[in-house]
């Protein structure tokens, strides 16, 4: 049976612990460039790639609770990845856990489960 599950990856980067409200930082996790942003006290993670023309979001800023792309100033919701300017494709977002041991970011994947055992 195919099942969806989440792999949690510890992000070994000290900048996250002190990331200030409204600030962003680009960190490559598992060869994937992500932009971490703190909004309303919560740490969020989005792919560092704007769905409009593929440019990095990490040079942008935060406004109205959204991440602003520095190229054409489209706003993206850091929770859903949705664009406020009508783009039909969202920025991919990843769940984040802040724990005593550090920050973990989730990567969704699909696997095959046989009698409760996940193959990968
Ligand atoms: S490249 Fe981001 S809004 Fe155009």
DSSP helix fraction? under 10%
Oligomeric form: single chain
Shape: globular
Bound molecules: FE2/S2 (inorganic) cluster
Q: How many helix segments?
A: 0
Largest sheet: 4 strands, antiparallel
Low-pLDDT parts are none
Q: Give the CATH topology.
A: Rieske Iron-sulfur Protein
Structural class: mainly beta
CATH class equals Mainly Beta
Beta-strand content bin: over 45%
User: Based on the structure given, which CATH architecture is correct?
Assistant: 3-layer Sandwich
Question: If you compute it from the alpha carbons, what radius of gyration comes out, rounded to the nearest whole angstrom?
Answer: 15 Å
Q: What sequence of helices (H) and strands (E) makes up the elements?
A: EEEEEEEEEEE
């Amino acid at each position: 049976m195919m099942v969806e599950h989440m792999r949690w990856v510890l992000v070994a980067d000290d900048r996250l612990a002190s990331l200030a409200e409204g600030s962003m930082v680009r960190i490559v996790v598992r060869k994937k460039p992500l932009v971490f942003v703190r909004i309303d006290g919560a740490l969020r993670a989005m792919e560092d790639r704007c769905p409009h023309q593929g440019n990095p979001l990490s040079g942008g800023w935060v406004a109205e609770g959204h991440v602003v792309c520095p190229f054409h100033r489209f706003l993206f919701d850091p929770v859903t990845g949705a664009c406020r300017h009508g783009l039909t494709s969202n920025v991919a977002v990843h769940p984040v856990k802040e724990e005593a041991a550090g920050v973990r970011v989730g990567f969704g994947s699909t696997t095959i489960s046989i009698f409760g055992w996940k193959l990968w």
